[in-house]
Amino acid sequence: MKKPLLRSSNVYNQFFTSPCGVLEVVADDRGVTAVRFVEHQPDRSCESPITQRTCTQLQEYFSGARHSFDVPLAAKGTDFQERVWQQLTRIQYGHTASYADIANCIDNPTAVRAVGMANGRNPIAIIVPCHRVIGSNGTLTGYAGGLARKQFLLELEGAIS
After folding, report:
1. Catalytic annotation present for 55
2. Is 71 exposed, middle or buried (0-12, 13-18, 19+ CB in 10 A)?
């Protein structure tokens, strides 16, 4: 018996120049799969309605007009990572949470380190706001985009001064 062909999803990308660097927005037909800081912007992109909408919302965010995002998300990770990333989306604009707070919210209070690892593997910067996670003592801790960008984003949101 023949196996059915698996239909591959289309992949799109678009670049957005933010006040803290160039972002690449990547999406498939279901939603945004990545928002990441890149060092340079290639000459070509393959835009879609999802990447365009995401870039519009990022522009609104950086101008202070948007405090939450409503683009479809399609990040791929382990079940645990996806639970952590979902919890990150619940951290309100202008607020922060600790890794322990996130672990408690997902009913796994001993998973603080695992939460930190999942947070560090978040593929959708800013929209899934891993920058809002800080150390239990209130210090800024690691951020894939760099601590200067994390500080910029938290200052933009008024979470720190």
Report:
1. no
2. buried
